[in-house]
């Protein structure tokens, strides 16, 4: 059964002027931010989990960090972004928000960030960066999540490409999709995580550490 866009949109929570401005900027400048139904689902799960500290891999312009901070006013969010131009944009948008005191932006490659730049543990990790590197991100940052913590991974569906055979995927994206498929197979059979895929937005994977 398929639902109409209007029906789905009737469940989307209203956003403030800054968030709407950021959504318009992202659309105009082709900056990938989380789709509205997906971020609403993510935020509802975060309300249930109620993490004190969240680590985000892939800040972009700061949209999801702000959304999470607004949802969890007592939470601390650390977010990592390697694109210098986007770091500037994110810091500017965050400074204009009402949750600037909750968010710390680290500029750098998430695979090269030193452990001493981060807190020892995070209750939740949100991965939304280079899709072909999800396995490496997971292996690097999952040790920072204690038992009972959750890792959230966006864009698992990759606009339908993950549902295709590799021969059907455009050649320039095959390595990324191969890595993404390998990661999904690996995590779904991992004995230390209870994982499930939610077909919302571009596909959200939720992995709870046992």
Automatic annotation (TrEMBL):
- What are this entry's molecular-function GO terms? magnesium ion binding; O-methyltransferase activity; S-adenosylmethionine-dependent methyltransferase activity; tRNA (uridine) methyltransferase activity
Q: What's a GO biological-process term for it?
A: tRNA methylation
Broad enzyme group: transferase
Q: Which UniProt keywords apply?
A: Magnesium, Metal-binding, Methyltransferase, S-adenosyl-L-methionine, Transferase, tRNA processing
Decide whether keyword Chloroplast is in the record. Answer: no
Q: Where does Mg(2+) bind?
A: 128, 154-155
Is Transferase one of the keywords UniProt gives this record?
yes
PROSITE patterns the UniProt entry points to: SAM_OMT_I
Q: What is this enzyme's EC?
A: 2.1.1.-
| HAMAP family reported for this sequence | TrmR_methyltr
Q: How does it assemble?
A: Homodimer.
Its family remark reads: Belongs to the class I-like SAM-binding methyltransferase superfamily. Cation-dependent O-methyltransferase family.
Give the protein's function.
Answer: Catalyzes the methylation of 5-hydroxyuridine (ho5U) to form 5-methoxyuridine (mo5U) at position 34 in tRNAs.
Protein name listed in UniProt: tRNA 5-hydroxyuridine methyltransferase
């Amino acid at each position: 059964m398929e639902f109409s866009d209007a029906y789905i949109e009737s469940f989307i929570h209203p956003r403030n002027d800054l968030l709407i401005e950021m959504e318009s900027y992202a659309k105009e400048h082709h900056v990938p931010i989380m789709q509205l139904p997906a971020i609403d689902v993510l935020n509802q799960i975060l309300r249930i989990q109620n993490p004190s500290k969240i680590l985000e891999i892939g800040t972009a312009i700061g949209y999801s960090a702000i959304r999470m901070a607004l949802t969890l006013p007592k939470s601390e969010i650390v977010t990592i972004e390697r694109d210098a131009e986007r770091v500037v944009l994110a810091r500017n948008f965050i400074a204009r928000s009402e949750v600037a005191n909750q968010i710390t932006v680290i500029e750098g490659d998430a695979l090269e960030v030193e452990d001493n730049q981060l807190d020892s543990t995070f209750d939740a990790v949100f991965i939304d960066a280079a899709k072909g590197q999800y396995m490496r991100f997971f292996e690097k940052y999952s040790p920072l999540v204690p038992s009972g913590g959750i890792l959230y991974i966006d864009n698992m569906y990759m606009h339908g490409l993950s549902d295709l055979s590799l021969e059907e995927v455009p050649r320039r994206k095959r390595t990324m999709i191969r890595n993404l498929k390998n990661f999904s197979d690996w995590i779904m059979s991992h004995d230390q995580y209870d994982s499930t895929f939610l077909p919302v937005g571009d596909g959200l994977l939720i992995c709870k550490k046992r």
